[in-house]
What does this fold into?
Amino acid sequence: MRIVIIGNGVAGITAARHLRKLSDHEIIVVSDEAPYHFSRPAMMYVSMGHMTFDNTKPYEDWFWKKNRIEVVHNKVRLIRKDGGLVIDLESGPSIDADVVILATGSEPAWYGWQGEHLPGVQGYVNKHDLDLLERNLAGARNAVVVGGGLIGIEAAEVLHSRGVHVAMLVREPAFYRKVFPEEESTMVTQHISRQGIELRCSTELEKIVAGENGGRVDHVISSSGEHIQADIVILATGVKPRIDLARASGVDVSRGILVNDRFETSIPNIYAIGDCAEFETGVQQLWYTARAHGEHVARVIVEGAGPYVRGTYFNSAKFFDLEWQVYGVIPPESDESNSVYWSDDSSTRSVRIAQSNGVVSGVHGIGVRLRQETCVHWIENGTMIDVVRKQFQEAVFDPEFTRKVSV
Amino acid sequence: MNYIELTVPDSMRNHGTMWSRWKNRGVPAYLLALVLTGFYVMVYWFPEPLAPLASLLDPLAHLLRGSVADRWFLYGTIYTVAVLVMGARMLLRYRTQRYHVYRTLTLMTVQLMMSYLIPALLARMGSKEFYFSYFWPLKPEYLFPSNISALVQSDNGLLMFMGFWTIAMTVVATPVLTYFYGKRWYCSWVCGCGALAETAGDPFRQNSDKTLAAWKIERWMVHSVLATIVAVTGLIWWANIDPTSPIAPYAHEANRVYGFLIGSVFSGVIGVGFYPLMGARVWCRFGCPMAAVLGLLQKYASRFRITTNGSQCISCGNCSTYCEMGIDVRAYAQRGEDIKRASCVGCGVCATVCPRGVLKLENH
Ligand SMILES: Cc1cc2nc3c(=O)[nH]c(=O)nc-3n(C[C@H](O)[C@H](O)[C@H](O)COP(=O)(O)OP(=O)(O)OC[C@H]3O[C@@H](n4cnc5c(N)ncnc54)[C@H](O)[C@@H]3O)c2cc1C
Ligand code: SF4
Ligand code: SF4
It folds into this structure.
């Protein structure tokens, strides 16, 4: 059997690796971005000079051949039904397939702003953006980042590290307030401001304006009417599933490519995983979920495995020097009535344990590393908050000699 | 500008490391490597040009050792100053991480006391110039019969103590401490080679080779060196017990060749000279027989490991990039596996640079 995977992001590559582990099928991965898989969340470390692009590749280039995974650097134009499935590439001969896995990921979601296509305006989600930023950085002094999300803050840190003055437009009243409770949001907002980022909260983008002589961006106008100088504008207002190929090929799509809980699309033998897939419960656009999808779809295809069940929610990110980890549910409206909160006097470390009726529902740390296994165990077993507080050191994953957390 | 970058820390962030010509094998890095290798070659084999430099240190040598400064005093002084100055840089750079602060302070203190001041004072007292922080097989002669029997049978209490110290550290403390804490107790907290690598070598850690091919060469080489020194030590003992045996004349010749190839060329000229090109742990990784022993203990008889925090890894590669031992840490972390590698010196930098809090050095 020949399985063709479209997209060499973490979803597609994890599927390929696990298919190889479980079976002897012929595996081909077609992708148009970079010839070999790289870590998308590592892009910022390339832009800051912490790593080379090569350092972001989790596997050495010989790995694929050794594991009999054929790698094709090309763009898929269309998937046709012609007896089996046929995959038309942008250049070169088509590929026949018995099974196709769509792992086409996501693309930036922009909202049709005036000036969004001016030179100097870009997103920050793929290899193209990474290279484009290097060109846009030449001679740049001021930048505006639009969007107060996880990609926005990474873009701001990148620009700041390159000596560019950054203003950030954030729709919420404080950074990440849509997700964080008030204390955490304030802590992170202050930390970002201390780095020298000019945060404009409760502010949106109105339009992007070009300079007088020539097409490059000169400034943006915010929802409050302010003109902010910008040689670079990074639009980080979220991503949406990349569904153009699926739609053109007659696969049912809505926001994403519609799948059931075994990743099956509306067309037999075509599966969809990772950022591009939309489940009955919506999309799951995280590194960890994409990896889990890849692992599970391989079991579905080879072993006929049952439904994919997403485990307890978790996530992590870093805001300049502040690390963040979360397990379970922490509602943004958390306060003393439904959670326990601890922070140290440096205001760079905090822990929150959310509860309802005394049962722990989520654990949240900023500047404190938390052990996933322990936190998830507490949440999944309905552990009482008093027990969790007493045992809390077991969940702390900080380096040796770090000051104790006394939640 | 580039020079300043090498010495003045910019907190723990690695901004611009890959564009620095010093840190990423540019022309200045090659020049520095040339200077360092040249210096080692002079110290070992062509010391004359160093004499005027050494004589500048005469007052200090008189004060500490009660003798004029020779090339070894010059070398020891430069070495210790490098550890102290670059140690201060290390402390500044990693000031928010207590693990690094404590181990750097320990390394600096051990280097200054045990490898510099105390041996000098011992020499001044007319006693044996003894290094309490080095053991067999890194300092093979410490277990040679001529040395050890003289010490243990001495009626001078201090010399006797040195003898028993050597035996106790090699036979008892090494396996016990490694069982509880991993090889890091020595390589990243005590050892003088480690002290230079962890301080002066910190700017170059990203230059270690992470490929599988390098790992294969490493295992082959480091264990060959260990096998060789075990054999040489055995020969020397044999020759001592049975001086009439036909191998006796070869034993000391073997030791001389080992001393030249491994002790001087490998650990000195290449080990330090290649810092800017292959990272600071070239010797520790490919050549050090002590690291090989500790590594075997760490792998098969130790509670130490680096644990991985569930599924939090984003495969970014910071850990592998900044591992000075060239361990592909990410390969384990992204599979959720603990890292239990013989070569890991427990420097803790992988855990420090990880942006998702995935790695933790643990003793159980
Ligand atoms: C800057 C940034 C930082 C991030 N940081 C984090 C983080 O810290 N934690 C986290 O959980 N998530 C993070 N994410 C999100 C995470 O990267 C994604 O959820 C994950 O990469 C999705 O993987 P995927 O395999 O589904 O898709 P992708 O990684 O997007 O891969 C899809 C691939 O398919 C290719 N492709 C698409 N269509 C075609 C076609 N027609 N022909 C050929 N190839 C095609 C694309 O070019 C692309 O290479 C981050 C995202 C970005 C952009
Ligand atoms: S694995 Fe980590 S602790 Fe071990 S040597 Fe490498 S960077 Fe240091
Ligand atoms: S640095 Fe951390 S997140 Fe990045 S690859 Fe290593 S363990 Fe994973």
Q: What stands out?
A: Residues 17-299 of chain B form one domain. Residues 62 and 285 of chain B are 37 Å apart (CA to CA).
